[in-house]
Structure formats: structure tokens, C-alpha cells
């Protein structure tokens, strides 16, 4: 029986474990899906009651999903390792887990952030710390609001890998009746789409918190997509990726949904809360808060203009009041819309 380790029992990690279990049931292929939980009580609840009430309320988990608070146990002999931990703690976790990973395991990143200090994408951190070749590193992204997927509302996403055969293999593992993965070889584009949308969602949330209208929010979303595309292209990504699920699809969902942590964090900032107050109030990480400065640094290094990102970074750093944000959101010299 093929073993899949899902490292991280937060909302998205738990939901993806459910997707894997439902996909196995639909395919008629028994699989051992082990969910690593940092808290022993979370693992006990999952094994005893088949639910993770802290993140997914009363939504039941498939019988194929079991949990442990031992990373070594979860990783032992796993053919596929799914990483669903906060982006800023990834490198430390990888170092702690390195000796437990089975040789040749496929590594799937569900994370959407840049590492602060290095400005590196999660696939780059994985390659550095575990020495995993590009053909065995995959990223999954798209409109991934965990609670909607856990409720089995139809959702499509993208699995990207340099080796398209590996992308297809992982796509088959997570094809459930309500979850449809598409395949891509554009790892850079898929990751950048998932990273920058968090920052743009903060901006849209701030606009909503300031009671700005739909014209403003639509303008920020559209020009935010242009910023994202410029950065992706500068790093070797492909424009069509950003027009798809991992770009536009994820951006729209994250900017518009009250389930989005980044949208919620931005809205609270717009309503006048300090960053410390926002972080204290939220129970889960808003990745855009952590990654925004890294996105701006990466853009500057490649000569990419990102005025919306720059404005959000200034707000987060306390250098710009939220009431002064509006005029800076579209602060770019007059240009044709062609060419982003």
C-alpha cells in the first residue's frame, strides 16, 4: 500500500489529506495517508474521531487518513511527502526531518510564500536542504480556500513539476470527485502566482476596510495580476500560467473571499488595527504579511516595478498610514496596458 505523508495538520494540510483519501476511495486504490500534527491532542482527535475540529469543525476525514505527532513515523517509507507548514519555518523543519525522508520520495509543496532573508521560493528551499532533484519536486497551487474544498465544493488547481510525468502521477493521486488538478511544467509561474496574490489580497482587504468601492478593488486585482506576471516573467515563468488557475484563479479567490486570511488581515488593517493587533486576533498565518517584503526585494533585484506591493510593504512597516494608501496603489508612470 502506497504511503503518503502530509506534514502539517492545519486547515490546508488536513484538507489535502482528506482530498487524498477521497481520491484513493474513488480510484479503488488503498493508500496509507499519514497526517503529521505538531500537537499530540490533534493527532489523537483525528485518529479517534476522524476530524480536526480546530480547523475543519465537524467535517469528517476518510478512514484512509491517520495521524501522528511523530515526524519520523509519518515520513518513514513514504513514497510522497506533502509539505504544508508555514513558509517561514520550512527550512528549519526540513533540516530536522532530512534523515527520515525515504530516498527517491516525491516532494509536494502546498506552501505559498517566499523565505524572508533569502527571497527564495519553497521549491528552491526544498532543493537546497534535501538535495531533491527538480524532477521530484512539485508545487500545487490555485484557488485553494481550504474550508470550501473540505466541504467538497468543486475546485480546480494546478500541479506543476519539471517532469510532466511526475506531475501527472501526483495529479492522479489527488483527483477526487470534487477536486480537479491540471498539470503544468511551469513551476516558477505557479509558485509566483501563489506568492504574490497574498500581497495583493492584503491591498484589496485594506481597500475594503477603508470602504472603497468595487472599481478600486477591481483595479487593484487587475493591476496586481500585471505585477505578478511581470515578476514571474522576469524569473523565467510563463504568461499563460498567470492567466490560469494558479494566477488569476487564485488571485480572485484570495482577494474576494472572507475565508481568505490575507484578505481578512488587510481588512482589519484598513479598519485601523495595528499589525500587532491583527496578528494577535488571527488564529492562522496570513502569509502575505510574512512574505511581502521578500516579494519587494525579489522584484527590486530583477528590476520589476510593483507599486501595489511597495505600498503594502510600507503599510506593514508602519511607514505609510492606511488612509494614505489609495493614491499609491496605481502609482506608476503612464504606460500602455500592453506588455503588462
Automatic annotation (TrEMBL):
<feature type="binding site">
    <location>
        <begin position="261"/>
        <end position="262"/>
    </location>
    <ligand>
        <name>substrate</name>
    </ligand>
</feature>
<feature type="binding site">
    <location>
        <position position="287"/>
    </location>
    <ligand>
        <name>NADPH</name>
    </ligand>
</feature>
<keyword id="KW-0444">Lipid biosynthesis</keyword>
<dbReference type="GO" id="GO:0141153">
    <property type="term" value="F:glycerol-3-phosphate dehydrogenase (NADP+) activity"/>
</dbReference>
<dbReference type="GO" id="GO:0051287">
    <property type="term" value="F:NAD binding"/>
</dbReference>
<dbReference type="InterPro" id="IPR011128">
    <property type="entry name" value="G3P_DH_NAD-dep_N"/>
</dbReference>
<dbReference type="InterPro" id="IPR036291">
    <property type="entry name" value="NAD(P)-bd_dom_sf"/>
</dbReference>
<feature type="binding site">
    <location>
        <position position="112"/>
    </location>
    <ligand>
        <name>substrate</name>
    </ligand>
</feature>
<keyword id="KW-1208">Phospholipid metabolism</keyword>
<feature type="binding site">
    <location>
        <position position="262"/>
    </location>
    <ligand>
        <name>sn-glycerol 3-phosphate</name>
    </ligand>
</feature>
<keyword id="KW-0594">Phospholipid biosynthesis</keyword>
<protein>
    <recommendedName>
        <fullName>Glycerol-3-phosphate dehydrogenase [NAD(P)+]</fullName>
        <ecNumber>1.1.1.94</ecNumber>
    </recommendedName>
</protein>
<comment type="similarity">
    <text>Belongs to the NAD-dependent glycerol-3-phosphate dehydrogenase family.</text>
</comment>
<keyword id="KW-0963">Cytoplasm</keyword>
<feature type="binding site">
    <location>
        <position position="112"/>
    </location>
    <ligand>
        <name>sn-glycerol 3-phosphate</name>
    </ligand>
</feature>
<feature type="binding site">
    <location>
        <position position="11"/>
    </location>
    <ligand>
        <name>NADPH</name>
    </ligand>
</feature>
<feature type="binding site">
    <location>
        <position position="112"/>
    </location>
    <ligand>
        <name>NADPH</name>
    </ligand>
</feature>
<feature type="binding site">
    <location>
        <position position="38"/>
    </location>
    <ligand>
        <name>NADPH</name>
    </ligand>
</feature>
<feature type="binding site">
    <location>
        <position position="250"/>
    </location>
    <ligand>
        <name>sn-glycerol 3-phosphate</name>
    </ligand>
</feature>
<feature type="binding site">
    <location>
        <position position="55"/>
    </location>
    <ligand>
        <name>NADPH</name>
    </ligand>
</feature>
<feature type="binding site">
    <location>
        <position position="261"/>
    </location>
    <ligand>
        <name>sn-glycerol 3-phosphate</name>
    </ligand>
</feature>
<keyword id="KW-0520">NAD</keyword>
<feature type="binding site">
    <location>
        <position position="260"/>
    </location>
    <ligand>
        <name>sn-glycerol 3-phosphate</name>
    </ligand>
</feature>
<dbReference type="Pfam" id="PF07479">
    <property type="entry name" value="NAD_Gly3P_dh_C"/>
</dbReference>
<feature type="binding site">
    <location>
        <position position="12"/>
    </location>
    <ligand>
        <name>NADPH</name>
    </ligand>
</feature>
<feature type="binding site">
    <location>
        <position position="197"/>
    </location>
    <ligand>
        <name>sn-glycerol 3-phosphate</name>
    </ligand>
</feature>
<feature type="binding site">
    <location>
        <position position="261"/>
    </location>
    <ligand>
        <name>NAD(+)</name>
    </ligand>
</feature>
<keyword id="KW-0547">Nucleotide-binding</keyword>
<keyword id="KW-0443">Lipid metabolism</keyword>
<comment type="function">
    <text>Catalyzes the reduction of the glycolytic intermediate dihydroxyacetone phosphate (DHAP) to sn-glycerol 3-phosphate (G3P), the key precursor for phospholipid synthesis.</text>
</comment>
<feature type="binding site">
    <location>
        <position position="39"/>
    </location>
    <ligand>
        <name>NADPH</name>
    </ligand>
</feature>
<feature type="binding site">
    <location>
        <position position="146"/>
    </location>
    <ligand>
        <name>NAD(+)</name>
    </ligand>
</feature>
<feature type="active site" description="Proton acceptor">
    <location>
        <position position="197"/>
    </location>
</feature>
<dbReference type="InterPro" id="IPR006109">
    <property type="entry name" value="G3P_DH_NAD-dep_C"/>
</dbReference>
<dbReference type="GO" id="GO:0141152">
    <property type="term" value="F:glycerol-3-phosphate dehydrogenase (NAD+) activity"/>
</dbReference>
<keyword id="KW-0560">Oxidoreductase</keyword>
<dbReference type="GO" id="GO:0005975">
    <property type="term" value="P:carbohydrate metabolic process"/>
</dbReference>
<dbReference type="InterPro" id="IPR013328">
    <property type="entry name" value="6PGD_dom2"/>
</dbReference>
<feature type="domain" description="Glycerol-3-phosphate dehydrogenase NAD-dependent N-terminal">
    <location>
        <begin position="3"/>
        <end position="166"/>
    </location>
</feature>
<dbReference type="InterPro" id="IPR008927">
    <property type="entry name" value="6-PGluconate_DH-like_C_sf"/>
</dbReference>
<dbReference type="GO" id="GO:0046167">
    <property type="term" value="P:glycerol-3-phosphate biosynthetic process"/>
</dbReference>
<dbReference type="GO" id="GO:0008654">
    <property type="term" value="P:phospholipid biosynthetic process"/>
</dbReference>
Amino acid at each position: 500500500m502506497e504511503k503518503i505523508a502530509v506534514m502539517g495538520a492545519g486547515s490546508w494540510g488536513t484538507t489535502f489529506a482528506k482530498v487524498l483519501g477521497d481520491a484513493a476511495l474513488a480510484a479503488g486504490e488503498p493508500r496509507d495517508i499519514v497526517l503529521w500534527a505538531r500537537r499530540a491532542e490533534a493527532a489523537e482527535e483525528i485518529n479517534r474521531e476522524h476530524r480536526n475540529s480546530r480547523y475543519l469543525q465537524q467535517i469528517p476525514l476518510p478512514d484512509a487518513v491517520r495521524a501522528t505527532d511523530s515526524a519520523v513515523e509519518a515520513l518513514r517509507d513514504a513514497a510522497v511527502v506533502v509539505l504544508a507548514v508555514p513558509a517561514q519555518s520550512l527550512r528549519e523543519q526540513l533540516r530536522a526531518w532530512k534523515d527520515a525522508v525515504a530516498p527517491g520520495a516525491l516532494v509536494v509543496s502546498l506552501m505559498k510564500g517566499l523565505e524572508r532573508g533569502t527571497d527564495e521560493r519553497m521549491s528552491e528551499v526544498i532543493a537546497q536542504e534535501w538535495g531533491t532533484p527538480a524532477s521530484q519536486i512539485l508545487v500545487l497551487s490555485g484557488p485553494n480556500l481550504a474550508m470550501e474544498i473540505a466541504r467538497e465544493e468543486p475546485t480546480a488547481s494546478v500541479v506543476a513539476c519539471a517532469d510532466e510525468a511526475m506531475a501527472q502521477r501526483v495529479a492522479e493521486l489527488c483527483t477526487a470527485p470534487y477536486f480537479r488538478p491540471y498539470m503544468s511544467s511551469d513551476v516558477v509561474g505557479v509558485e509566483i502566482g501563489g506568492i504574490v496574490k497574498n500581497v495583493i489580497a492584503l491591498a484589496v482587504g485594506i481597500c475594503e476596510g477603508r470602504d472603497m468601492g468595487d472599481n478600486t478593488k477591481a483595479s487593484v486585482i487587475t493591476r496586481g495580476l500585471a505585477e505578478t506576471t511581470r515578476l514571474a516573467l522576469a524569473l523565467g515563468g510563463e504568461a499563460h500560467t498567470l492567466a490560469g488557475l494558479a494566477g488569476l484563479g487564485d488571485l480572485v479567490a484570495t482577494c474576494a473571499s472572507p475565508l481568505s486570511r490575507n484578505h481578512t488581515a488587510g481588512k482589519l488593517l484598513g479598519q485601523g488595527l495595528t499589525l500587532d493587533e491583527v496578528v494577535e486576533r488571527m488564529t492562522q498565518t496570513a502569509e502575505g504579511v510574512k512574505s511581502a517584503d521578500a516579494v519587494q526585494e525579489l522584484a527590486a533585484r530583477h528590476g520589476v516595478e510593483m507599486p501595489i506591493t511597495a505600498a503594502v510593504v510600507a503599510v506593514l512597516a508602519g511607514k505609510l498610514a492606511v488612509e494614505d494608501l489609495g493614491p499609491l496603489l496605481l502609482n506608476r508612470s503612464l504606460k500602455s496596458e500592453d506588455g503588462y
